[in-house]
Hints:
Two copies of one chain form a homodimer. Chain A has helices spanning 3-9, 11-23, 26-35, 41-53, 59-66, 70-82, 104-124, 130-157, and strands at residues 57-58, 86-91, 94-102. Chain A has 164 residues and is mostly helical.
Amino acid sequence: MDPLSDATTGLLPRLLQLRTLLNRGQLYEQAAQDAGVALDRPAMTILVILDAADHPLRVGEIATRMQVVGPHVTRHLNSLQKRALIIRVPDPEDQRARLIALTPSGQQMVDRYTSTVNGWFTAALAQWPDHDRTELMRLLTRLTSDLTTQFDALAAGGTPTDED
Amino acid sequence: MDPLSDATTGLLPRLLQLRTLLNRGQLYEQAAQDAGVALDRPAMTILVILDAADHPLRVGEIATRMQVVGPHVTRHLNSLQKRALIIRVPDPEDQRARLIALTPSGQQMVDRYTSTVNGWFTAALAQWPDHDRTELMRLLTRLTSDLTTQFDALAAGGTPTDED
DNA sequence: TATTGTTATACTCTATAACTATA
DNA sequence: TATAGTTATAGAGTATAACAATA
């Protein structure tokens, strides 16, 4: 067994544990409560994505970034729009598409949420040396990027009998 | 705004992206297919947990490690037992409890699965300098640990009006 | 009486299929 | 004919409630 395997053998359980931690409502529900927002998790995820993008996004683009399917996004957009947290404007470049933008109150809500969560992260990492924090960001970014590339390649080449 | 905030502001979107990556079936389904296993994700998670523990675990312990609730584990154990991938043995220390152990075929299945996934990780990180891989493991371990501590504290102190 | 686990039921999240409108 | 989005329906995953057995 080569040393590369040894170096990555521990990755799977670590990532599963991290996923578990992030997935279960705990984090989200606590943050939602502390921030005073009453929104389900996928809806808040949409707001966070719009906030991070810094400009309006198409429905399909939101779906891609969430790694979910279009109709799922539509459903949550409907309820977000009813609550006036987002608006749909026609895309000037393509009349079929819509651009989704945060309303001021949507922006306000996502700001409250993210600042709550960021406060927790800051507290959790308060004892870390600066260098470790910097490295974590860098390695996490590269890990996500490399895993995405790897999985995309696997998905593309996964069923060679099916390609046409 | 202090520098600590700046250093952790980017953590939320990064973790959300990683969660997205790990969550959506893609990874699991591809691995299950490549490894030739036909099992749903939570069932496989149970096998991975048992494998990582290296000794039989109680139902409650599995639930805790999965961050889910008891009945959810029971349901999957029933189907895993029907397929002879796990066995339930009475805990000698407490007749109420059961210890869940992998059968040889269960062990074989989880081995196939983990070696497939570890192979991907190894490939994805093949270009990384050794030092980065080591650091990733270390920082990921500490991150998970510190976040867990943080969230537990939040959950415990989250509703001070409720304490008694 | 408290705890371990099970059974039964309900809810949340996400996917697939069928459709509408524009390209 | 292909693409962006929506509506309607179905399925996977997880939680809550009620119960049985042992401590």
